Amino acid sequence: MSNKNTGWGGNRNGAGPKIKLLKLSHAESMLITDALNGVIVMPETAEQQLWLEVEDAIAHRQLDQKWNVDGAALVEKLKKLSHDAAIEIVDNVNKFWSNSQ
Length: 101
What we know:
- 36% of the residues are buried.
- By secondary structure, the protein is mainly alpha-helical.
- The protein has one domain.
- It has helices at residues 26-35, 46-61, 63-66, 71-79, 83-99.
C-alpha cells in the first residue's frame, strides 16, 4: 500500500469507507485504527479524545514507528479537526473493528 492520500485506509484490503472531511494516508488511518482498538470515544469530546488517544498510543506503544508515520504531524493534523470530522473518523474505526470479528 502506498502512503498517498487515498481517504480512509482502515480495512484489511486497504479499501474502505471514505473520510470526506479529512484525507489520511493508509498508514495514518491504520495508526488511528490501532490506537483506538478497544477505546470508547465519547461523542461530546471526540475531537479532543481522538488526538489524545493517538498521542498516547504513539508515546507508549510507538505506533508511529510501527506504521511508519510522522506521529507529531499526525497529532497536529488531528488537533485541527472539526467535531464532525472527528466523529466521522471514530465511526469508520468502529465499523472496521465491528467487521473484523
